[in-house]
What we know:
By secondary structure, the protein is an alpha+beta fold. The protein has 6 helices and 12 strands. The chain has helices at residues 71-79, 125-131, 136-143, 175-184, 189-196, 203-208, and strands spanning 3-11, 15-16, 26-27, 32-33, 39-41, 64-68, 92-95, 107-110, 113-120, 148-154, 156-158, 164-168. A 7-stranded mixed beta barrel has the order 1-7-6-10-9-8-12. The protein is globular. The mean pLDDT is 91.
Amino acid sequence: xxxxxxxxxxxxxxxxxxxxxxxxxxxxxxxxxxxxxxxxxxxxxxxxxxxxxxxxxxxxxxxxxxxxxxxxxxxxxxxxxxxxxxxxxxxxxxxxxxxxxxxxxxxxxxxxxxxxxxxxxxxxxxxxxxxxxxxxxxxxxxxxxxxxxxxxxxxxxxxxxxxxxxxxxxxxxxxxxxxxxxxxxxxxxxxxxxxxxxxxxxxxxxxxx
Length: 209
């Protein structure tokens, strides 16, 4: 059985993360663990969670943001930081499934809900701003430690105690592969065409390709 264990379930409200005197930057990247709660997962979001930038976050293809717990040690060592859980603004901090283990279209049971992998998480300047590391998005591109998004195929109640259990694998294109083609192999027309043919890959990512 392929499954991922949830280390933390996180939600947050939108707020200004700009420094004093800077132009306003609204973000819900500061999320808090709600591990004691059972929440409802709708087609667009987890109950109580907000997305400030609906162009780059949220919506049907980006309802849930997932980040692998395994990468936290790497970032703490590289950056000399002690990142809190939820540091990447993720809804699910997940153990057991990294970008190499998860494929576009993978469909998981999560509590009463059914979710599907839709695209990688695109590195965002707000991660850099939150942690004071200007090159953080570039480092994420270089490593491929991006995390990924889920769309919701079936709404339902979810909790931190509900593992993500793989129901169906629809493609042979991992999140790791998508990141590699997008950022490091941009002239590989064959690989790009392969990704464009994937029904399960989000339209927004296809447009960027």
